[in-house]
Design goal:
Radius of gyration: 25 Å
Structural class: alpha+beta
Distance between the termini: 27 Å
CATH architecture of the largest domain: Beta Barrel
Low-confidence stretches: 239-249
Shape: elongated
Bound molecules: zinc ion
Helix content: 10-25%
Order of helices and strands: EEEEEEEEHHHHEEH
Length: 249
């Protein structure tokens, strides 16, 4: 089992699970459970006098849901958050559809050959259970909303320096660097979707590239944001001249 953040999720597809083979020569029918994700299964007729290649009857075969996910190592669990975060592809069987968040993955490792005739493999995870990490499960706003909270939110909302207050609250362990904190805060708040006159949407997410002097606490900021907002994905580059450039996406 390991913990990670979903950074990309494909739609749920159908995976051939029990292949139904029919022999066009003698009428023999064989059902076979498929465990390989990367090739179409083949079967030779088991009838001793026939031995013809059987054809796959897709309409009589059975399928399960499958979803392909990319899971990234959480930056707050990395020894050095300036290292490039690693990610792995996971195939979730019987998926009802999961698209974001911090998750616990239970699965087995499988490999796919990536270079014909060479013993080089890409590593994947085959999983039957990917569940949202308990501490990141969504809180329904209506469950915590009460008149006192609404009043507090209204009072806060009337403050002119609300962005300063909240951006300081976001990373309280670092003193100063208000502009950097405010930039990160506004990036995490995101915008709203806008539409151009021709109807095409402008995305609401924005990227941030943080270039600063060394030692202002970028790694601490990054760890804190990673814990609070697991839907982010990160990249990191350490320059050859001494590691003073660290972009955050
Ligand atoms: Zn046959």
């Amino acid at each position: 089992m390991f913990e990670g953040n979903i950074i990309s999720a494909a739609k749920v597809c159908a995976l051939l699970k029990k292949a139904c083979f029919v022999c066009k020569n003698c009428g023999n029918i064989i059902n076979k459970t498929v465990n390989d994700y990367f090739s179409i299964p083949k079967m030779i007729c088991s009838n001793k006098n026939c031995r013809a290649e059987m054809s796959l009857d897709l309409s009589s075969s059975t399928y399960v849901n499958i979803q392909e996910l990319e899971i990234q190592q959480p930056i707050d669990l990395m020894k050095n958050p300036e290292d490039p975060p690693r990610s792995i592809k996971a195939f979730l069987e019987n998926s009802e559809g999961i698209y974001s968040g911090r998750v616990n993955v239970v699965g087995t490792v499988m490999k796919k050959s990536v270079r014909p005739n060479l013993p080089i493999f890409e590593i994947y995870v085959k999983s039957n259970s990917i569940s949202l990490n308990e501490s990141y499960q969504k809180i329904e706003v209506r469950d915590i909303l009460n008149p006192d909270l609404i009043e507090t939110l209204n009072q806060l909302g009337r403050k002119r320096n609300i962005v300063d207050i909240l951006s300081n609250y976001l990373i309280p362990q670092i003193k100063g660097y208000d502009i950097v904190k405010k930039a990160i805060f506004l990036q995490q708040i995101k915008g709203c979707i806008k539409f151009l006159p021709d109807g095409s949407p402008l995305r609401r997410d924005s990227h941030i590239l943080l270039i600063t002097d060394p030692g202002i606490g970028k790694s601490t900021m990054l760890r804190r944001i990673a814990r609070l907002f697991p839907q982010n994905s990160y990249a990191s580059i350490t320059t050859a001249t001494g590691g003073d450039l660290q972009p955050m996406l």
